[in-house]
Amino acid sequence: MDHLYAFIHSITWLISLTNPASFSVPVKDTLQTSRPVPVQFIPVPRQESVSGFAAPAFFPDGKTVLLGQHSENDKYTLELSKMSNGQWSYNGPVNFTGTYRDLEPAMAPNGKYLIFASNRPLRPNGSELIGYYNGKRLPGRGGNLWKVKLRGQQFARPERLPNVINSNSTVFSPAVAGDGSLYFMRADSGGKFHIYRSQLRKGDYLKPILCSFSVPEFGDFDPAVAPDESFLIFSSGRAPAVKRSDLFIVFREKNGWGEPVDLAEVLGPHVFGIEARLSPDAQTLYYSNSLNELGEMTADGQFLWSVSLTRLLQAHHITTPASLK
Question: Which Pfam families match (predicted)?
Fold first, then answer.
C-alpha cells in the first residue's frame, strides 16, 4: 500500500475530545472499558465541505493546526485552521503552498518553525522530484524536506534542508524533537522506507543514523516523536500487522530504543493506520485509517482519529507532559 497517498480520498472528521468544548463520537466496538476510546477529529466548522485532510501539526497552544490536504484534482496543499471561542475556523491554504505536492507538515515543539515534505524542484524552473518506492519510478511524486520559519503565525519562505538529510529524492515524513533533532523516513535502494534520526548540533544536522528498531527486513514510515524523545510512534506492515499498516510505539530505554509494541494490541483493534502526529503535550495520538465513524472498514475513504496515550505513558512512568527544550 502506498501510504503516502492513502489519504487521497475524502476524510470525515469530528472534533477532538482534547478540546473541552468539542463533540466526539466513540467507535462502536468491543474495546475494554479500561482502554481509551478513539474519536474522530475535524478542526473546521461542521458546515464546511472539506475532505482529504491528514497529519495535523499543532502550534504549541493547540489552538492552531496545519494539515496536509489532498483535493480531488490530485493537488496537495498545506491548510490552516484556528480555534476561537471553542470553535474551529477554517483559514485555507498557507501562503507558500499550492503549486507543488506539499504534505506531511511537522511542527517544532517550540513553534519556531515547521518542516514538511514536497516534490518541489531543487532550483527555480527545475523539474519536480521523481520518487522511487514500491518498486516503481514515480515522476513528480518524489520528496525532500523543507523548513519554514515562523514569526508568530507568519510563515517565511521555505528553505530546503541540506543534502545530508535530502540525500535522495525519496525523503518524507519529518518529526522534530525538542532539541531540534530530526526523524524522517527515507527509501533504500530497493524502494523500502526506513526511519532515520539526525542530531542537530550547533545549528547543523549531523549524518542521519538508522534507528535501531527500523530493521532492514521491514518497511517503517511516518514517525512521530515525543519532544523529550521518551517514545516514538511509527507505522509498519511488520508482524503482527496483517495486510495493513499498524501503529507501533517504541520507548526509550537506558541503552537506546526498546522493542516496538503494536498499539492495536495495547489500545484496541481500531488503533492502526498511518500519518501519526502528537498533540503539543504528547498525550494524544492522531492518525488516519479507513474506519468510518461507526468503526466500519471502508474501501474508498481515510478518516482522521485521535486517542489518548495518557494511561499507556503512565504505565511506562511517563507521567508528565513531554518537556520542551
Answer: PD40 (PF07676)
